[in-house]
């Protein structure tokens, strides 16, 4: 399939897949779609590339010899600064919900099951990049939540003055909630455009965010559940 016409982009993608044929096909297709593309055959070369180059998004295959996509994502999320927030799209032949939930807990941004159409991969990549660069809310400024403070403009969460590592999906979720502080936002509205439109991805991200924001994640003060509706952000 030929890629759709698209304007030139200065976006840099990392493709990690041990299958030489798939890796080269994806590299060629995405390059023709206007992206700058770098490819790696496994976890070790991918780590070296991530440590030396800036990427706007990474595409990891789950099943790879040596180090699988889950392990590589876990390592990436442990890195400081922008590198640790690099959006991740996971390619997988696995269909078990437990595998998808494991990836969500690690902070992946989207899943795409194999086999897939290259055009769908392109659309999912573009959707993730749009979320990552979405205009932040204009009203409200920095929101204080006890020891934490969230700046929607910068997409930055501080805890006792220290930067807290967030994934791009977590930043996008906090920004959505920050648009209308103290007001409930429908769970399915929050899930729109996410890896799981049913809302399961949102639930996982809320759980992760509560561990970073709340003094007691089991009794949340700031990131509240509104029964039958969704969630609300209740800053000081």
Question: How would you characterize this protein structure?
Answer:
This protein is α/β, with parallel strands linked by helices and 236 residues long. Helix content is 39%, strand content 20%. The chain has 2 domains: 12-132, Response regulator (Rossmann fold, 3-Layer(aba) Sandwich); 143-233, Arc Repressor Mutant, subunit A (Orthogonal Bundle), CATH 1.10.10.
Quick structural overview:
By secondary structure, the protein is an alpha/beta fold.
Task: Output the keywords.
236 residues, alpha/beta, Rossmann fold, Arc Repressor Mutant, subunit A, 2 domains, four-stranded antiparallel sheet, 9 helices, globular
How many discrete structural domains?
Answer: 2
The portion of residues assigned to helices is 25-40%
- Beta-strand content estimate: 15-25%
What overall form do the CA principal axes indicate?
Answer: globular
CATH class of the largest domain: Alpha Beta
Corresponding CATH architecture of the largest domain: 3-Layer(aba) Sandwich
Query: Please, what is the oligomeric state?
Result: single chain
Are there runs of 5+ residues with pLDDT below 50, and where? 4-8
Secondary-structure element string: EHEHEHHEHEHEEEEHEHHEE
Strand order of the biggest β-sheet: 2-1-3-4-5
């Amino acid at each position: 399939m030929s890629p759709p016409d698209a304007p030139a982009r200065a976006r840099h993608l990392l493709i990690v897949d041990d299958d030489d044929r798939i890796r080269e096909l994806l590299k060629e297709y995405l390059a023709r779609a206007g992206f700058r593309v770098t490819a790696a055959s496994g976890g070790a070369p991918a780590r070296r590339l991530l440590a030396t180059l800036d990427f706007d998004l990474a595409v990891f295959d789950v099943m790879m010899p040596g180090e699988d996509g889950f392990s590589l994502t876990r390592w990436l999320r442990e890195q400081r600064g922008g590198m640790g927030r690099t959006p991740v799209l996971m390619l997988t032949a696995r269909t078990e919900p437990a595998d998808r939930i494991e990836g969500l807990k690690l902070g992946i941004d989207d899943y795409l099951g194999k086999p897939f159409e290259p055009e769908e991969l392109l659309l999912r990549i573009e959707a993730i990049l749009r979320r990552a660069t979405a205009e932040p809310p204009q009203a409200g400024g920095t929101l204080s939540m006890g020891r934490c403070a969230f700046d929607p403009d910068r997409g930055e969460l501080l805890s006792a003055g220290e930067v807290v590592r967030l994934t791009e999906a977590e930043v996008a979720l906090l920004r959505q909630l920050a648009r209308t502080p103290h007001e409930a936002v429908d769970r399915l509205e929050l899930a729109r455009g996410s890896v799981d439109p049913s809302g399961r991805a949102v639930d996982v991200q809320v759980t992760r965010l509560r561990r970073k924001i709340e003094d007691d994640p089991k009794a949340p003060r700031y990131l509240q559940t509104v029964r039958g509706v969704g969630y609300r952000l209740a800053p000081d």
